[in-house]
């Protein structure tokens, strides 16, 4: 089994899926007929209760022995409040989608060395602290529609290529510096933040990437020549200012 999708239930913990062998009857049928996926979607609380209250003593060897092959887990639209330790039972997980839940922190992902895509849009995340300790090999990170103001915890995600921070609370240009230094970042979304409504928003953000400005897709668009020219000037001014501050501090 490579994929599990459980959408729109009142499930509150990931372990209700990963640590229980007797998943809802309809899901078991799906597993028996499609060797690479389980999919379960329900809008009813009663159906969710059938998952959370299922009898874990009914062993389904097919499911239990295949977590080691699980690569994609999508738990969109549930009532999850945390990323519990049960995710460690899927060591080959490459894509984890936890959109539209109630998660406030990233945890228990450090052992998932193959995790490349993490989507946490529409959650309650208000801070990110040293996330490289949890997400060292991540390529794509979606944090749209959370409560982030500070980005310092993302500054060491050196393998990150795609980063969605749209619709958060970022209002200071200096916060962009934390992600602008990521060496292979290609796509950044900041639309919907207070910063995105400021004057010359696009060239100001692109200027923080300095010589890499032309390589960056900002809000799904590359910089125009005019924006890049302005960014170049702003970059030079910022570099000069930082150099002056450094010299003054050494006196």
Automatic annotation (TrEMBL):
Parts forming coiled coils: none
Keywords linked to the UniProt accession: Leucine-rich repeat, Repeat
The UniProt record lists the keyword Metal-binding: no
Keyword ATP-binding carried by entry: no
TM region positions: none
A Pfam family that the UniProt record links to this protein: LRR_8
Annotated Gene Ontology cellular component terms: cytoplasm
Superkingdom of source: Eukaryota
PROSITE patterns reported in the protein's UniProt record: LRR
Name this polypeptide is given: Nischarin
């Amino acid at each position: 089994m490579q994929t599990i999708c459980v959408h729109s239930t009142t499930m509150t913990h990931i372990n209700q899926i990963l640590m229980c062998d007797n998943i809802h009857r309809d899901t078991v049928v799906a597993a028996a007929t499609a060797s690479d996926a389980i999919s379960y979607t329900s809008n009813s609380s009663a159906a969710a209760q059938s998952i959370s209250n299922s009898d874990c003593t009914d062993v389904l060897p097919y499911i239990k022995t295949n977590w080691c092959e699980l690569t994609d887990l999508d738990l969109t639209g549930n009532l999850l409040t945390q990323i519990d330790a049960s995710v460690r039972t899927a060591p080959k997980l490459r894509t984890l989608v936890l959109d539209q839940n109630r998660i406030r922190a990233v945890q228990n992902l450090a052992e998932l060395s193959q995790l490349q895509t993490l989507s946490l849009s529409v959650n309650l995340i208000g801070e990110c602290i040293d996330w490289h300790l949890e997400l060292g090999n991540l390529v794509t990170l979606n944090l749209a529609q959370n409560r982030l103001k500070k980005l310092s915890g993302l500054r060491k995600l050196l393998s990150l290529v795609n980063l969605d921070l749209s619709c958060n609370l970022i209002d200071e240009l200096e916060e962009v510096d934390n992600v602008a230094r990521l060496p292979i970042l290609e796509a950044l979304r900041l639309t919907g933040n207070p910063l995105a409504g400021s004057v010359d928003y696009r060239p100001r953000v692109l200027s923080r990437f300095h010589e890499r400005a032309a390589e960056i897709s900002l809000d799904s668009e590359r910089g125009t020549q005019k924006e890049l020219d302005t960014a170049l000037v702003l970059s030079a001014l910022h570099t000069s200012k930082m150099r002056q501050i450094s010299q003054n501090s050494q006196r």
